[in-house]
UniProtKB/TrEMBL annotation, chains A, B:
Family annotation (NCBIfam families): mgtE
Role played: Acts as a magnesium transporter.
Lineage: Bacteria, Pseudomonadati, Bacteroidota, Flavobacteriia, Flavobacteriales
A Pfam family the protein falls into: CBS
Description of how the protein assembles with itself and partners: Homodimer.
InterPro entries recorded: CBS_dom, CBS_dom_sf, Mg_transptr_MgtE_intracell_dom, MgtE_N_sf, MgtE_transporter, SLC41_membr_dom, SLC41_membr_dom_sf
Protein name: Magnesium transporter MgtE
Cellular location(s): Cell membrane; Membrane
Annotated source species: Spongiivirga citrea
UniProt GO cellular component terms: plasma membrane
Length: 449, 449
């Protein structure tokens, strides 16, 4: 049943478009779901995609545009007039409309908004554009079903019918007072069994989850996930009802946040995809590589300082990639666990407890790995003092690397900085330098060169 | 408005529990949302938590149990009798019930199921237990609203009322034929405006998304996300309607998959949390560290083989951590982009195109980084031939590392293996060895030692 882009399908698409028979092209595309059309358009040339967008009804194409990749959407919108974009915007819910407008160049934004015929829609979009995109305000839509607590049941049903026509999916009915302050929610069932002249005041449920308009989007995601909500109302500080957020937007937030953290851990600074241009990819990757290079050059310096050991303990230098790798791997493991723990609010207990735990953990890992090094040294017939020096300094490096990996994210988080930046290359690079320095320092103390 | 565990709250909780006054404790906890009670219980001793669970109604505690961390749930369930667990199970939807039973030791599973009074519920749970937990079958619930296409509208409304009582949220009404084959869905609106004697057959929408029962859970997540679905029906190969999956379960799938990939990239083999035991954490972390250790010992061997270069080009050895770091970082970046691209189906085009792109990208990065190395060499007054050797061999290492990082996940994916395992330590370790070998090999060719 699942839609898949196949070569046959693409050939068919190209053949249909080449007929340039508007009716035939329309009939062909109209059969598909808007999300599938978006997938198809991403495989077409800009010219072809624009042709299809202009041909189909804006009821359908507005949804197609929202589904497209940001880059592809940008290119197509460039080919549309302000009037044409405004027509697409009219068909969208306010949240999607605001997102689409926000991507346009600034002077175009005003032109497009000026062309929107529905003045209320335009005003609502303008309001949404003012909110930071990473907040509840940036996620919410103005479309919702709300009723006044002073209405009778009959009045309420009548009003609801009108409002519901504008809302794609009615998740909840929100109850407000005369000042638009959120009071509670209404269950459809209670509404249906209540006497027609009864007041909403007497039947609504005063317990309702809500979020403030300036709440961080990740926090909203946590609340909706925790309480299994499919929609949540958004209010300002005085509890005026401003909008609502639905679960499908939250799914996107969760995905995007997870991908961002993953990329940061892999040393990629901005959201990129495998199919972005080489230039975009370089911009995202090169900074971390330069950081890694500086770390490596730092190691060159450190080793240069212990040059005199080369004559007696040359093998010490052969172990530096191993030490760097251990320091890096342990640091990345520790930081990943802490970053995830912080994100999920499971990092509990005092810092001292955490410190003891990390030291304990590193001791177990370090002793196990040290044992393997000792076996290796025995096989290689290194002098016992040399093998033990390697094993013990590696153990120390592992402990320090674990502590750095654990506490740098915690400190960043306490200072309000996203701890996710302290994973991946950041931790490996600093641990490489720390590790190699510590390794030689301990080796010098133990072997006395 | 948001619930937060504070020290004051915990003191209050402890004070209430210490009264051992059942009524007071009941009244205190009954005020809270089940998800919040779960948060509180995770802060209590096992004894206290069990006391609260036994005290509250199973209507509430069943939801609390589902919200608990798996470890905490397991400990509490150990303290309950098969009968008590069965009572909790009766209150749960079949999907949650099956998940909870699946966690029990095998002989307990049968005891608990035998104690479930509602035989239909028990049979449905047994059916769900048979599906693999990573498939649509493992995610779905049996609770849904379905109507027969041959029913009249009146009949349909009557049946629906009964069914809806058992379903927490009615997302869709599914239409089946006499053989329980999924035919389509019904819109509540169409049902309400249809004549009472009309047949469902004449008003239902035949276009309905569905997934097969053996479909991978990540695929289900993709479909529901792509089409913005809040629920999807699950069918077998003959399209018999078996159950339905709701979006809240999909949110969990997305989160868990993202966390798994993130942990794999960080070198952690199984799902662990910051608050797991040292033993659990060691089990998850040590295997990758051992792999890294073997990689490091491999480098020791390789360098040992080039020992004769020490007398003339000792600085070559100082650069090994830098080379290893570059190879590792580049490999991790490439693999992360490919792994995400594969997950999101955006890796398009031929392998040759991808190869050319990676080589192009590596050339740009490598030349930029090589430039920095040349500046460094100039400052350090290395001989020009030596500096160029480092820069050029580093460039080659970067290209190879990018290719390994790109193609190992692609090859794994083609063979049906999760490409996410080829990120993090796997790639860094293999690239460390490859990189150092290549570095010395090229240096030997260029410098001729």
């Amino acid at each position: 049943m699942q839609f898949k882009i196949t070569n046959e399908l693409l050939e068919e698409v190209h053949a249909v478009i080449e007929t340039a028979n508007d009716e035939q092209v329309f009939a062909f595309f109209n059969e598909y779901h808007h999300a599938d059309i978006a997938d198809i358009l991403e495989e077409l040339s800009l010219e072809q995609a624009t042709y299809v967008i202009k041909l189909l009804d804006s009821e359908k194409t507005s949804d197609v545009l929202i589904e497209l990749d940001e880059d592809d959407r940008e290119r197509i919108l460039k080919n549309l007039s302000a009037k044409e974009i405004a027509e697409e915007i009219e068909e969208l819910d306010t949240d999607d409309a605001a997102d689409m407008i926000a991507e346009l160049p600034e002077e175009r934004q005003e032109n497009v908004i000026a062309q929107i015929e529905d003045e209320e829609h335009a005003a609502e979009i303008k309001e949404l554009l003012a909110y930071d995109e990473d907040t509840a305000g940036g996620l919410m839509a103005k479309e919702l079903v709300k009723v006044n607590e002073n209405w009778t049941v009959t009045q309420c049903v009548k009003e609801m019918r009108e409002q519901a026509a504008e809302v794609t999916r009615v998740h909840s009915i929100y109850v407000v007072d005369d000042n638009n302050i959120l009071k509670g929610r209404l269950s459809l069932k209670d509404l249906l069994v209540a006497p027609a002249r009864g007041k909403i005041k007497d039947i609504y449920i005063p317990k309702v989850d809500y979020v403030y308009v300036d709440e961080d989007d990740e926090e909203v995601a946590k609340v909706m996930q925790k309480y299994d909500l499919e929609a949540i109302p958004v209010v300002d500080q005085e509890k005026h009802l401003l909008g609502r957020i639905t679960i499908d937007d939250i799914v996107d937030v969760i995905k995007i946040e997870a991908e961002k953290d993953y990329q940061l851990a892999a040393g990629i600074t901005q959201e990129v995809e495998a199919d972005d241009s080489i230039f975009e990819l370089t911009k995202a990757r090169l900074p971390w590589l330069v950081l890694g290079l500086f770390g490596g050059l730092g190691s060159v310096f450190i080793m240069g300082g212990y040059e005199e050991a080369l004559s007696t303990y040359k093998e010490l230098f052969f172990f530096t990639p191993l030490i760097a790798a251990m320091a890096g791997n342990v640091g990345v493991q520790s930081s990943a666990i802490i970053v995830q723990g912080l994100a999920n609010d499971v990092v509990k207990g005092s810092l001292l407890q955490r410190l003891l735990k990390e030291v304990g953990l590193s001791l177990i890992n370090g002793i196990a790995l040290g044992g393997l090094v000792i076996i290796f040294g025995y096989i290689m017939q290194y002098p016992a003092s040399f093998t033990f020096t390697i094993a013990i300094s590696m153990l120390c490096v592992i402990i320090i690397a674990a502590l750095v990996g654990t506490f740098v994210p915690i400190i960043l988080d306490k200072r309000g900085i996203d701890p996710a930046i302290a994973t991946g290359p950041f931790i490996t690079t600093s641990n490489d330098i720390f590790g190699i320095f510590l390794f030689f320092y301990i080796a010098k103390l133990m072997l006395g060169f």
